[in-house]
Amino acid sequence: MYTDAMIRRHRHLSAVRSLLSRNPVVAILGARQVGKTTLAKETRLSGRAPAAWFDLEDTAHLARLADPMLALRGLRGLVVIDEVQRLPGLFPVLRVLADRPGRPARFLLLGSASPDIRRQGSESLAGRIAHYVLPPLGLDEVGRPSLARLWTRGGFPRAFLARSEAASVEWRREFIAAFLERDLPQLGFGLPAHTMRRFWTMLAHYHGQVWNASEFARSFGVADTTVRNYLDALSATFVVRQLQPWHENLAKRQVKSPKVYLSDSGLLHTLLGIENLGGLESHPRLGASWEGFALEAVIRILGARPEECYFWATHAGAELDLLIVKGGKRLGFEFKRTEAPTLTPSMRIAIKDLKLDRLDVVHAGRETFSLAESVRALPLERLRSE
Length: 386
What we know:
This protein is α/β, with parallel strands linked by helices and about 375 residues long. About 40% of the residues lie in helices and about 20% in strands. The protein is built from 17 helices and 14 strands. β3 (about 75-80), α5 (about 90-100) and β4 form a beta-alpha-beta unit. α8 packs across α14 (about 265-270), α10 packs across α11 and α10 packs across α14 (about 265-270).
């Protein structure tokens, strides 16, 4: 049985500590309940616990920061401010405090909505703040023996660590309800909970497909821009990934709308009504679920940023599931839930047209083997060691 103590997020701890050593302000961003607070509690400066901790969901803590300059300027060491998006006026104060000689305090900010924090940081704290996005647990953290469990339950720590499948499902149901009814409004997205639940559920059925705003707009009887706002709200709160299309000056008509994926496989399964691995294996969205799970694993193992990740498709039918442009190289990935993938005409076209340095066909088997020059079949469970 897993416990919290068994899953130590050493890579994330090391990364946050490194950022704090170089920047006066660091913001940890990520979805609700993903473990930001736990990571912050593990963070130390010079082996010491945080000098002060402010949780802005606590009205008493919020009151203490009514005059933020007065409350913060006398503190030394590490100061943690949780749910920082609830106090946007704090950022100009942090700029003044970050510029003090000797930097007597460093600030660790935790937030659940990306655009506002990034915008405020870039406006008020340019050159002083670093951002770190904390994802759910991944295959690189829990290990290969837990692959099926991670895929089925998802990477939110409480869902993954639950004592039973039923307990995990119940936690995810409660998370979805609380996220729609409480968290989205608190984060500034004034969208009706029932509308967003319907939209999120519909999006789950489109997981891994190209976004079609007109189709969603017709279903809801609203404008294309309205459903786009729904999508952006879920993306901003880290529960949906929009994988942008790669396009360049080729003599082919290329798809220019993003693909949409639910970021966490456990939430995807709950929204689809899937409660266990048996139900997943008989569900029509099995392949799409596996593709999204494998795609997230590749992106995080390679440490690729969103702006380095794309898909590619032409209107003639050629496509590539994932293109990562990183370090001057073009790395291609296809995801096939089979034990014996083969090289397809579409892959050959992608290799030629995109000038790929390498193509990996990530599959559900156990063997690594070559398919062609610079093309290999790679098991998902071996991504960590390859």
